[in-house]
Amino acid sequence: xxxxxxxxxATNYLDEYYFGGAxxxxxxxxxxxxFEIGQEGMLIIxx
Length: 47
Known about the structure:
three-stranded antiparallel beta sheet, Transcriptional regulator with AAA-type ATPase domain, 0% helix
């Protein structure tokens, strides 16, 4: 994140081979918001 100077979003989904969860971090690498692993939903952030 610091190297790219960009907000980063990562997600996964619930399926046979996937485990759910999502997170976003700011340009400094600080956590903005997240879903726990196994949690379904929509992660919405204001950029």
